[in-house]
Amino acid sequence: MLIQIIQTAVVSLKSNKIRAFLTMLGVIIGVYSVVTLVALGRGVQNYIQDQFDAIGSNLLFVSPGKSDFAGDPASSLTRNRLAEKHINMIKRLNSPSISGVTPYIVTGDNVTYKTKSYYSTVVGVSDNALDIFNYALQEGRNFTSVEQNNSAKVAIIGPLVKKELFLSNSPIDKKIKLGEESYTVIGVFEEKGSNYDDQVIIPSSSAKDTFDIKNYSNIVIKTTSPDEVDLVAKEVQIELLKDLDEDEFSILNSQDILNSIQNILAILTAGLGAIAGISLFVGGIGIMNIMLVSVTERTREIGLRKALGATSVNVAIQFMLEAVTLSVFGGLIGLFLGYLTSLAVQSFVRAEITPIAIILAFLFSVVVGVIFGTYPAVQASKKDPIEALRYE
Amino acid sequence: MRKKVLVAKDLVKLYKVGTSEIRAVNGVSLEIDEGEFIAIVGKSGSGKSTLMHMIGLLDTPTSGQIILNGSDVSFLKDNELAKIRNREIGFVFQSFNLLPRTSSIDNVMLPLKYSNIDKSTWRQKAEDMLRLVELSDRKDNKSNELSGGQKQRVAIARALVTDPSIILADEPTGNLDSKTGVEIVELFKKLNKQGKTIIIVTHDDDLAKIAQRQIVIRDGKII
User: Fold this and answer.
1) What is the per-residue pLDDT for A72?
2) Cα distances (angstroms) measured from residue A190 to each of A132, A138, A187, A202, B189
3) CA geometry: angle at B160 spanning B109 and A308, to 5°?
4) What stretch of H or E contains A336?
5) What residues pair up with A222 in beta bridges, in sequence order?
6) Other CB atoms closer than 10 Å to residue A30's CB: what's the count?
7) A95-109 as b/e, with b when 16 or more CB fall inside 10 Å?
């Protein structure tokens, strides 16, 4: 019986293809935009997850100021007192759960080799930073603790910097210019992800000299395992409070930072999806409008069906299913276009259409069809067969 | 004695127009036997259409009684009336009322879709009816590809397909030229010979003459 009615619905929609398509367009655009935005949101979340996976989840970041994502970002600039002293305090803890500590200075500058110049992220760290951040070298060597202590002008460059400045030539022992000083390239690290590959890594002591920086952007602590992160955070907190005020520093682990960003992104994605949902609503209104026109146009047909034995419920179901068919077809087309889009952007973002998104898109279009098909269907079912047959 | 298919007792239908009442049908009683060929005749405004709507169970009387095949159907609910119409009454309309862009066979099967008849028999029944009205060769043609006479024959096949007790035809030749009209009249005669009860509603005296019995309506009453 249901198949019968759906067939009837499809036949009647087929008889007016352009109108059916235009009516569906609202739902197509609605479902398409919801699906695509949610997929792109997922893609960005995936991207950030990848970035964090690249540095590992057993890191603690001691940041200056009360940087809990809620406070005034300017406060972290004005109160930065993080210095070598604090590195030493953490080292003196001799905690078995800490496998490494490094200062972290980050700034940006043009790196120049002969006539070529490339704007890169300059990172000042200690000699154990490659281990802490899981960098692997494809060429050359790390700098030594002696070079670190002597503020040696040596640099490890990222694959992107190498490509831009040296093409396929070996950059080892070449002189590059950072700030006003000349640095010797001693190593190149392996590709690590687009956010890292443009870095130039130098000893933190050298970074202080060259860029005239007094304090550290962060102190980064690596724990022996991700489970130790909270424990170490407490130990370090207590120790640093001996020198710093409570609002002069904060300790975040990479998971906290990741969660904060993911939360913001999830809210953003949901918000965008909801805005896109408005077009789905407008599409529904379009369906209702056309169904009402259709009910009026087909008054005779309704009357005939009733005269031949159709009950009000039969008629209501027929018109309801026409609305749902329109909406579901539109939804499926929108979903398919969304899928194509997510494939098209695959090289930029790992956009992802989850099974939940598919089910939701389908359910949404059914619900839109039902909601906006009800009123026209009820109108159709109320027609008196006599009046309907008389209608010219 | 022949079985009575339809008995109407003192049917009255009132319409309210503003504050005044119009008695469209004002006390009509009639009996129709199985196998009869009857014409209900009257000018426009005589009340014959209102009477037809009540006999066809498309409308309920204000007062009075309609007994169809022995059961009282005067004041049933819309859904119950729809089911009885489907089983007991075959309608033929002046303007054919076929579904547009739909094949003859699908048009003929339409009443079956609202019946309890086993789906596997639908096509066979529809084909049988199309053969009866001599349109087997047009069964897959869409309704807009048919001539007026062919359309009306499809409509008659549709009226016959649930094997109803009464065929109720409202001005069945009104939209046809005289030659095609005669063909349709001959078809009704043939069906009547096969035992069908046929009621034709018309204002056309010539058409009415072919019936065995004429019921003339004027001002809502039989004269």
Assistant:
1) 52
2) 15, 5, 10, 16, 97
3) 60
4) helix A312-344
5) A59, A100
6) 28
7) bebbbbbbbbbeeeb
* Domain assignment present for A199: yes
Residues with pLDDT less than 70, chain A: 1-2, 67-79, 194, 391-392
Q: What are A380's two structure tokens?
A: 């159709």
Across the interface, do B113 and A11 touch by the CB < 8 Å criterion? Answer: no
What the block records as the tokens of A98 is 């800490």
pLDDT at A332: 92
Question: Between chains, do B79 and A307 touch, taking CB under 8 Å as contact?
Answer: no
Is B78's Cβ below 8 Å from some Cβ in A?
yes
Partner B contacted by A363 (CB < 8 A):
no
Question: Which stretches of chain B drop beneath a pLDDT of 50?
Answer: none
Q: Count A/B contacts: CB-CB distance under 8 Å.
A: 52
State residue A69's pLDDT score. Answer: 52
Query: Of B85, B102, B114, which has the smallest distance from its Cβ to A314's Cβ?
Result: B114
> What does the block give as tokens for B33?
């036997």
Which amino acid would we find at residue A66? K
DSSP state letters, A17-51 = HHHHHHHHHHHHHHHHHHHHHHHHHHHHHHHHHHH
Q: Is A2 on the interface with B (CB under 8 A)?
A: no
Q: Rounded mean pLDDT of chain B? A: 91
Is A104 within a domain? yes
The C-alpha atoms of residue A337 and residue A28 are separated, in whole angstroms, by 9
- Asked if A289 and A349 sit in the same domain, the reply is yes
Query: According to the model, what pLDDT value does residue A51 have?
Result: 75
Distance CA A330, CA A365 (A): 8
Task: Record the pTM.
Answer: 0.72
Nearest chain B residue to A384 by CA distance is: B58
B219 CB within 8 Å of a chain A CB? no
**How far is A338 from chain B, CA to nearest CA, in Å?**
35
What CATH superfamily is the domain B36-59+74-222? P-loop containing nucleotide triphosphate hydrolases (3.40.50.300)
The span from the CA of B168 to the CA of B39, in Å, is: 10
Token pair 């005239």 is found at: A212
Domain with A314, as residue range(s), is 2-50+261-390
SS3 B40: strand
Q: How many independent structural domains does chain A possess?
A: 2
- Kindly state whether residues A108 and A172 are assigned to the same domain: yes
ipTM score assigned to the predicted complex:
0.93
CA distance A120 to A179: 12
Whether A106 maps to a domain, the answer reads yes
Residues of A in contact with B97 (CB under 8 A): 300, 303-304, 389
A307-346 residues touching B, CB cutoff 8 A: 307-314
Q: Chain A: nearest CA to B81, how far in angstroms?
A: 8
**Pair of tokens at residue B165:** 């007790």
Helix locations, A167-253, DSSP H: 204-211, 229-240
What's the burial of A350, exposed, middle or buried (CB within 10 Å: 0-12/13-18/19+)?
middle
User: Looking at the partner chain, which of B53, B100, B113 has a beta carbon nearest the beta carbon of A4?
Assistant: B113
